[in-house]
């Protein structure tokens, strides 16, 4: 069954905190299967102080991290002790960046789980802005004792 | 067909399966080795082909795609060698 998460829900399920919480909302979430998240890009983000002065472009590596946080949420079941299980980014494969992301953009991030084995799950992810492809690739998330 | 021909055909099929697996691993994992140089009983991990745990996920995915055979967490011994992967596929592939 699909559900949605607010920013507060996301903070309750991920260990990340400012300035490394990358997602603003999750609009769809099917645990262990798939999810869709939104990320708003603001000129207030301190990363633009250096990337790049006078030409703000959101870094591709942070797009990967944003997708990884969505994949972590897809796997973030609550453990036996009541706390969410934390997934770690284990591999990044075949990532392509096809459009620059700038302040004012709202990124839609889609993640779909694939093969699972030995506590690791691979995901196909796709990022778009207004329906236009921004980036896509594959990630592996590892869950300790998963 | 004679019993001898059956055995001969089964052996040829197995050789072809092992060769397909070797090529699948080398291409899919982008291994810097010649597929023909991998021995059927050579360990895939450790001092064998030196694969790691991330590679197991890739092999599981490749076997699913190529053979429609699903390896689960209970089947970790499958990754011992090419022969062990082949045995598993023969025992579990759709008829």
TrEMBL record, chain A:
Keywords: Lyase. It comes from the Bacteria. InterPro entries: FabA_FabZ (IPR013114), HotDog_dom_sf (IPR029069). It holds the Pfam family FabA. Belongs to the thioester dehydratase family. FabZ subfamily. Gene3D superfamilies: Hotdog Thioesterase. CDD domains: FabZ (cd01288). This is Hydroxymyristoyl-ACP dehydratase.
Automatic annotation (TrEMBL), chain B:
It comes from Agreia bicolorata. Signal peptide: none annotated. Residues 15-93 form the Carrier domain. SUPFAM superfamilies: ACP-like (SSF47336). This is Acyl carrier protein. InterPro entries: ACP-like_sf, PP-bd_ACP.
């Amino acid at each position: 069954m699909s559900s949605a998460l607010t920013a507060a829900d996301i903070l309750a399920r991920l260990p990340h905190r400012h300035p490394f919480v990358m997602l603003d909302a999750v609009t769809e979430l099917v645990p262990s299967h798939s999810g869709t998240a939104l990320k708003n890009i603001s000129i207030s983000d301190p990363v633009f102080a250096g990337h790049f002065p006078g030409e703000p472009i959101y870094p591709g590596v942070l797009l990967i991290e944003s997708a990884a946080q969505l994949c972590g949420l897809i796997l973030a079941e609550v453990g036996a002790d009541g706390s969410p299980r934390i997934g770690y980014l284990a591999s990044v494969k075949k990532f392509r960046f096809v459009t620059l992301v700038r302040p004012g953009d709202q990124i839609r991030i889609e993640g779909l789980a694939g093969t699972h084995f030995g506590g690791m799950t691979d995901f196909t992810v796709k990022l778009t802005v207004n329906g236009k492809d921004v980036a896509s690739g594959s990630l592996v998330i590892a869950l300790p004792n998963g | 067909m004679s019993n001898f021909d059956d055995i001969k055909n089964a052996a040829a099929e197995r050789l072809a399966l092992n060769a397909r697996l070797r090529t699948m691993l080398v291409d899919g994992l982008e291994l810097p080795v010649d597929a023909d140089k991998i021995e059927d009983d050579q360990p895939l991990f450790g001092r064998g082909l030196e694969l790691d745990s991330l590679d197991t996920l890739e092999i599981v995915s490749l076997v699913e795609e190529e053979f429609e055979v699903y390896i689960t967490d209970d089947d970790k011994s499958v990754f011992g060698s090419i022969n062990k992967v082949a045995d598993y596929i023969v025992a579990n592939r759709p008829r």
